[in-house]
Amino acid sequence: MKKSKRNDIILIIVILIVALVFYIGFNYYNSINTKEPVTVVKVGDEVYGTFPLDKDVVEKIELSDGSYNILEIHNGKADITEASCPDGICVNHRAISKQNETIVCLPNKVVVEIHNGQKNDVDTITN
User: Fold this and answer.
1) What is the four-CA torsion angle of 8, 12, 13, 18, rounded to 10 degrees?
2) What's the pTM?
3) Which residue, 14, 17, 24, 125, has fewest beta-carbon neighbours within 10 Å?
C-alpha cells in the first residue's frame, strides 16, 4: 500500500513538471513570435513604406508622375484621406485596422495593407 501511494505521488509530480514545462515553453514561443501590427504601403510592386499602427502618422505618398495619396494612421486605423485620382474610391473607403484588410487606389497603383493585425471576425460581407 505504501509503495502504491508513493508511486502515485511521483506520477502526479512528474505530470505537474511536464505541464509546467509545456506552459513555460508555450508562453516563451508566443512572446518571441508576437509581432506588432503594421501598415504596409505598396506602389506598384515595390514596398513604399511600413508604418506601425500604434503611432499616429500622416504620410504623403508622392509618385513620379505628380499624383499622390495621403495616408493617415490615427487611433490604430489606417485611412487614405486625400488622393489625386479622379474617382476617389480610396478616399471613400473606410479606415482599416484588421489583418489582411486593404485599401486600393487603382489609378495611382497604391495598395495599403494591414499585416500582423487582429483577426477579422467577419469572413465576407455581401450586399
Assistant:
1) 140
2) 0.65
3) 125
